[in-house]
Amino acid sequence: MAGQCRIDEVVVFGGVDTHRDTHVGAVVDSAGRLLGSAQFRADLAGYARLVAWMEARGRVSRVGVEGTGSYGAGLTRYLLGARIEVVEVNRPNRQLRRRRGKDDHTDAEAAARAALSGEATAVPKSGDGPVEAIRMLRLVRRSAVKARTQAANQIHSVLTVAPEPLKAQLDNTNLKAQVRICARFLPSGESTVSYAKQALRRLARRYQTLEIEIAQLDVDIRRLCAEANPALLAAEGVGPDTAAALLVAAGDNPERMKSERSFAALCGVSPVQASSGRTVRHRLNRAGNRQANSALWRIATTRIRTDSRTQAYVAKRHAEGKKRTEIIRCLKRHIAREIYRLITNPPPTPNCAKLRRQRQQAHITATQAAQAIRTYPSRISALELGRDHNHQIATKYQNWLRTHEAALPPT
Description:
By secondary structure, this protein is α/β, with parallel strands linked by helices. The chain contains 18 helices and seven strands. Strand 6 and strand 7 form a beta hairpin.
């Protein structure tokens, strides 16, 4: 009929309220009119029906999804695979809920309107690369560390009320020694001392098992970080746990962050305006990814102890009357800028395994190489074995090897 638009000419915006078993989708047009809402199962077949249902109402421009990192993760990957733009939507504010009530269809409609208005702009993590693997291993590691701490606390509790002969045997030893001794206990009999030894033996062996698990997880996380972004792991003051936290915050698609200011806000290190009238000031940002914020704090405090440039900056700020907490906040902001460049545009980092082969073929010992670049032989070995990723020393080592090989007479 005349005056009617074809379906593919109508631009629509979707919204999805996600749950474990089902998702509720809603569609609005560019004028904000609700075109419908429906419920779908949270599986591949349900995702396909949801997309087909939305596309039957027009050309889908953007879809707002709640919980892209939890219940909506599978749907988000499916939509991105179908080349549909996805934005992350927060829960509707409480004032709106008090006025309009709350149900799944209302939340889906609110998500669609947030996608239409541009209020929701955050691009979700793709969750399909090595960083997602790092995130899952860090999750396992955190629970293992928590269980290990619980086992240590329970060992202490049992020893506190243990019979005196047993308590005297372990009283003046540290936790590691207590675990070693308790793990070798061979309880026998029906006495209180025997049952106390049995409890301590099981707790100590649980502690040792968790120690082995955590050590293996540390190896795997370090390897994945080195594969995902060796330049970040090689930065001054950045260890595997710190690098993992920052990579997880950025995700497998760090290009979703539009600028270094976006990354600073994501990590909660961008100052927040708190001005009013004649008062012009900024306040501490308590939002953002707190694990990434903690990682930046660890880098800052490490550099204050070990890096001469950072120490000079701290001395300058102290002379200006800044407090230590204020100086660390400034450092975290500067470090966030550096980390953003390393994540989004990492420089090439030398392959130290190849440098080891070059050194051995040139019949150079690790001690000779260490003396030449003024470091320790253990540092050279750690670089070559992948236990250390210092970019500055690795580059210096690589350049020295090239110069040394060039000076050798031709064979």
